[in-house]
Write a structure and sequence with these properties.
Number of domains: 1
CATH topology: Four Helix Bundle (Hemerythrin (Met), subunit A)
Distance between the termini: 24 Å
Order of helices and strands: HHHHHHHHHHHH
Mean pLDDT: 94
Shape: globular
Radius of gyration: 19 Å
Number of strands: 0
CATH class: Mainly Alpha
Low-confidence stretches: none
CATH architecture: Up-down Bundle
Strand content: under 5%
Length: 241
């Protein structure tokens, strides 16, 4: 169930391919499964039930998308500030020490949870079959990456990491810190640069969502991805682990 070294190394590329398949839904050309995007599909439920108008329901789903995108961006930025964006975006795993600061006091894998929340926001812009495909595949990929990374850290760090794992939940955040906060200082500026794609998606939902045009938001997502690829050149490289 664990991800391979190659899978971890190219994890961002794999995520991008899965998202692209979710947006393009190539199977829809011959199966004809979908005619509307998930945003419209979800918005139609309360309308058919007579709970609210389609306009109000559409706005409610938009707000849900903004909240998912915002939660994912905030969580990943918080985690990257303590982990170090260079480590977060590196193609290799690192095992310098147990990180017990920021969100890592409440859960072991805030970066993966942030990505999964972000996926729910993007799924609203896809056709329903593409959204279902993307959520399932990204969820499985996150699980494989988590198991692989945790096995690596257990082998490298030994008992200190095993003790950390026994105290801190893997993915569902605890309501209180489960380990003492370490003295690590967050690097917020570099973390924001490293997660500029995530914040670009948030901005796209907020800026273009009111036009009720998923294609405009998708264009914002693509632009955000391009900006993030340029921004990564300014992220300091981590020391070899």
């Amino acid at each position: 169930m664990k991800a391979s070294t190659i899978e971890f190394r190219f994890r961002y590329l794999i995520h991008t391919v899965v998202y692209c398949l979710g947006f393009t839904t190539p199977w829809n050309a011959w199966l004809h499964l979908d005619t509307v995007r998930t945003w419209q599909w979800l918005a139609s439920w309360p309308t058919r039930a007579g709970w609210m108008s389609f306009s109000a329901s559409t706005n409610a789903v938009l707000i849900l998308g903004i909240l998912f995108a915002l939660a994912g961006a905030a969580l990943r930025t918080w985690a990257a500030a303590y982990m170090g964006s260079g480590v977060v975006h590196d193609s290799s795993m690192h095992s310098d020490s147990v990180v017990a600061a920021g969100p890592y006091c409440y859960m072991r894998n805030p970066l993966y949870l942030g990505t999964f929340l972000h996926t729910f926001a993007l799924a609203l812009l896809m056709m329903p079959s593409g959204a279902l495909f993307t959520i399932i595949i990204i969820g499985l990929l996150q699980l494989r990456l988590m198991l692989s990374e945790e096995a690596f850290l257990t082998a490298k760090l030994g008992e200190p990491y095993r003790a950390y794992c026994s105290a801190v939940p893997r993915i569902v955040p605890s309501l209180r810190a489960r380990v003492p906060q370490s003295a690590a200082q967050p690097a917020w500026g570099v973390a924001l640069v490293g997660e500029i794609y995530m914040w670009g998606v948030v901005a796209s939902f907020i800026a273009f969502g009111w036009k009720y045009n998923a294609f405009l938001i998708i264009q914002g997502v693509v632009v955000s991805l391009g900006v993030s690829l340029v921004a990564r050149a300014f992220i300091p490289k981590p020391n070899a682990a």
